Amino acid sequence: MEPNILRRPKLPEHPQRILFIRTAPGSIDYRNFIRATWKSKIESLAPVVFVCALGADVTLEATKHDDILQFDFIDSYHNLSLKMIAIYSFVMKETPSVEDIIVTNDDTIVNVTALAWLFTIERTGPWTLGKVSRGYPRLFMSWLPWHVPGEMYSNLCYPRFTQGSSFILSRKAAQVLLENFCRTPYVHLDDVMMGIVASCTRLQQLHHSGFDKHILEDFVVYHYQYTRHSAQQLRQLWSSIPA
């Protein structure tokens, strides 16, 4: 059963692509960082939509900015895959003109010029584009948020997967994921889940080293994966980028 949509963003007519930013409902400081910095620079390429579920009241913020898509389930790390499937379902049902889906986390900086250049290259079929990882072991330490128990996924290593902090996928790829979501073991790590589906289907994963980049050099999307930068740290990093 698909989750209900509680709040919808205001979108332009017939967008070709949308940039969805995954965020927790209480992370208004990160959303305001993005609104104050790179959001306005990217909106000529793609409207920006913040995606959250339940956990904090976003009513006033959503009314003010018209850029929040909120679903009716608990927003938690263990619902990441559900959040992504909800996004894909929203695209397929409510935005028929969208051909490219861009996804980032809220603790990222997007290089708009580098991102726009990627859309000058024609690609066909179901594909994802991002940092493709290989040979990742399943983590056994139960105290880690990335822990996946053996009863959820029994293999010692994951299949190839596109890192979830930032990536692009085609509309056809979203359709493949929706069609096969219930045919594979459920894993709450959305990028691993996408890799599992890709390994069993015709979904092509294309590698680009500019995604999930932890230095501000030759990057498409900056993201420091080892710790979560504060919104203030991200503002300082943004200010350090040459105009």
TrEMBL record:
It comes from the Eukaryota. It holds the Pfam family Galactosyl_T. InterPro entries: Glyco_trans_31. The keyword Transmembrane helix applies. The keyword Glycosyltransferase applies. GO terms for biological process: protein O-linked glycosylation. Keywords: Glycosyltransferase, Golgi apparatus, Membrane, Signal-anchor, Transferase, Transmembrane, Transmembrane helix. One of its GO terms (molecular function) is hexosyltransferase activity. GO terms for cellular component: Golgi membrane. Its EC number is 2.4.1.-. It is found in: Golgi apparatus membrane. It is a single-pass type II membrane protein. PANTHER family: BETA-1,3-GALACTOSYLTRANSFERASE 4, BETA-1,3-N-ACETYLGLUCOSAMINYLTRANSFERASE. Belongs to the glycosyltransferase 31 family. This is Hexosyltransferase. It comes from Angiostrongylus cantonensis. The lineage of its organism: Eukaryota, Metazoa, Ecdysozoa, Nematoda, Chromadorea.
